[in-house]
Amino acid sequence: MGDNAVLPCTLKPSITLVTWKIDPKVGGHCALSYLPNTNKTGRTSCSNSMNWKFRPDVDAALEIRQVGIAQEGNYTCEVVSTEGNFHEMYHLTVLVPPRLRLYCDDQGNPVCEAAAGRPAALVSWVLGSNSHPEEEGHDNGTVTVLSRFTECSTNVSNTTCMVFHLTGNWSKSMSC
Q1: What distance in Å separates the CA atoms of residue 95 and residue 143, rounded to the nearest whole number?
Q2: What is the set of domains in the chain, with CATH numbers?
Q3: What is the rounded CA–CA span in Å between residue 19 and residue 153?
Q4: What are 67-81's pLDDT values in tens digits?
């Protein structure tokens, strides 16, 4: 999320057409095309965030600038040459790292929050807890996971929350 993505497309000798066909989960289909015989490029309904990485006669890679959830979907590069038609297919999945927050609730219990991640994060406690994480889905496709430390023990002065996600793992400690 927010990074640039480059999807490569292998050129063949004697190409007559290169086309990127883009089918995002959100919004309509779009396409980029290149005709070598006229050295012309075309675009149909593609946002300005999607374009050729370099010149398509040199490198047919597609660059998506500042990737967002709206760009998630299927991308196909089709190269037509005298040798035949060649397809390279990609499925773009957008990951969003959660924001980790650890705080004390009104009863003095530690609460660990992994906010607005995609997919949902896994939240656990170093010392173990009877907590059942709660998930809240958001309209933009992200999920917030909330876990309350529920073990009642006078021996526990410091608790550590651990968050596991495809984009990384984090931990934070505190005492309430």
Answers
A1: 11
A2: 5-92 (2.60.40.10), 99-174 (2.60.40.10)
A3: 63
A4: 988 899 999 999 999
